[in-house]
Write a structure and sequence with these properties.
This protein is α/β, with parallel strands linked by helices. The chain has twelve helices and nine strands. The strands form two sheets. The protein has a seven-stranded parallel sheet, with helices on both faces. Helix 1 packs across helix 7, helix 4 packs parallel to helix 5 and helix 9 runs antiparallel to helix 10.
């Protein structure tokens, strides 16, 4: 069985390849940057240079493949890019698509990314190809983005108030994806994926402090301050607005739901925030 992975050098895609490498399958990684891909040190992985914007090129990249893990970076033309992949997959005869979506994807979401994901999710459902849609919540891995200020100030800043969220480790999303790709019975399913517990940023600060052996503080900041900082970092306006809406949702406690998907599909409990911090503590030193 040959499985193509798009977004192969991304947070989840790279871990999907790592998980698939433990299985008796052939893997083809579709990447835009071959040099970046080779730095992962993958063995027995066919690396193919390509872009979701090139529908013709996708047909070549998908040729002979049985299944597709579809993921792409956040972009304003995201639905179009993923739509190209769906069309190419159908022409190539791919039998199943496992697609990385987002929790809360809907046509009426106030978050653009959630609306765009819904659009491509629906296109996959209408395609006639067997599918599995994965809808994870906020990634624990995003906490690595605070490493610089934690090292510099012993603090990290966000407009999250005391809201609790069931953040999920990308390793667990990948484990669910690989289960859906390599085992039967997941066709036509949409899975919500969360972490095993709901925690606040204050809880996370305490965990970081314990692991680092020094005080780490979470500083709640007004949305206006967060917006200014993100824009100064070069993030596009639409993305900043989406992040602020997500922060508002999590700050209100909207992300507290814990779904049993990871344990049910993989047989093991998902990684907790404590485990994630222990595994990545060197990033904060």
């Amino acid at each position: 069985m040959l499985i193509v992975v798009t977004g192969a050098t991304g947070t989840v895609g790279s871990k999907v390849i790592e998980e698939l490498s433990r299985k008796d399958v052939k893997i083809r990684a579709l990447v835009r940057d071959e040099a970046k891909a080779r730095r992962f040190g993958w063995t027995n992985v066919e690396i193919v240079k390509g872009d979701l914007a090139n529908e013709r090129g996708l047909e070549t990249a998908f040729a002979g493949a049985d299944k597709l893990f579809l993921a792409s970076g956040s972009a304003q033309n995201q639905a179009e890019l993923q739509g190209n992949a769906v069309v190419a997959a159908k022409r190539a005869g791919i039998k199943q698509i496992v697609k990385l979506s987002v929790l809360g994807a809907s046509a009426t979401s106030p978050v653009k990314l959630a609306r765009w994901h819904f659009q491509s999710d629906e296109e996959i459902r209408r395609s006639g190809i067997a599918y599995t849609i994965l809808q994870p919540t906020f990634f624990i891995d995003n906490l690595l983005g605070y490493a610089d200020t934690i090292k510099k100030d012993g603090a990290f800043y966000a407009p999250m108030k005391n809201g609790r969220a069931s953040m999920v480790d990308a390793r667990d999303i990948a484990a669910v994806a690989v289960t859906a790709l390599t085992e039967r019975g997941h066709e036509g399913k949409t899975y919500e994926i969360t972490g095993p517990e709901a925690v606040s940023y204050t809880d996370i600060a305490e965990t970081l402090g314990k692991e680092l052996g020094r005080k780490v503080t979470y500083v709640d900041v007004p949305p206006e301050t967060a917006k200014k900082t993100m824009l100064q970092m070069g993030m596009p306006d639409w993305y900043v607005e989406d992040m602020l809406k997500l922060s508002e949702f999590f700050a209100s406690g909207g992300g507290e739901k814990v779904a049993p998907t990871v344990e049910k599909l993989t047989g093991h409990q998902g990684h907790t925030v404590d485990e994630f911090v222990k595994d990545h503590v060197s990033a904060y030193k």
